[in-house]
Amino acid sequence: MTTATISSTTSRLGEIARSLADRSEEWLHRVRLSADGRWYERLHHDDDHEVWLISWLPGQSTGFHDHGDSEGAFTVVLGSLEERAPGRTRTVDSGDSWAFGPDYVHDVRNVTDAPAVSVHVYSPPLSTMRRFEETPDGLVEVAVEQTEDW
């Protein structure tokens, strides 16, 4: 697992994401593909953390965003995703994980010609996400989403 910010919480979230990815037979039947946008379903939610299952068709992207005060981790279960953060781009292949601390800004997207599936874990559960646009001068905050927005 590669991490943007290492903490005990971040490491634990990565372990949860990898464990769920290793047991995909328990939830893979729930995955849907949608040409209208990324499909997602929350698999678990408690006071400590939440787990999201996300499917990605070719070309689908999150756009640049953060996760507010939440730390997070994700594991790609099927396919491959590209993760862009300011100043770097990386490929996250099936079986690979990425973890990050609060206020980490990134864009996750499927740049391949095949669908992808990933598991995402956040702690504390998401309450806000900020959206950013990429400009020649860097990222500019354009919106703040609250839990009820998704």
TrEMBL record:
InterPro entries, alphabetized: CDO_1, RmlC-like_jellyroll, RmlC_Cupin_sf
Where Fe cation binds, per the record, is at: 65, 67, 106
Question: Do the record's keywords include Cytoplasm?
Answer: no
Give one Pfam hit by family name. Answer: CDO_I
Q: What does the record give under GO molecular function?
A: ferrous iron binding; oxidoreductase activity, acting on single donors with incorporation of molecular oxygen, incorporation of two atoms of oxygen
Q: Which UniProt keywords apply?
A: Dioxygenase, Iron, Metal-binding, Oxidoreductase
Please give the family membership noted in the entry. Answer: Belongs to the cysteine dioxygenase family.
Query: What name has this protein been given in UniProt?
Result: Cysteine dioxygenase
Q: Which organism is it from?
A: Actinoallomurus iriomotensis
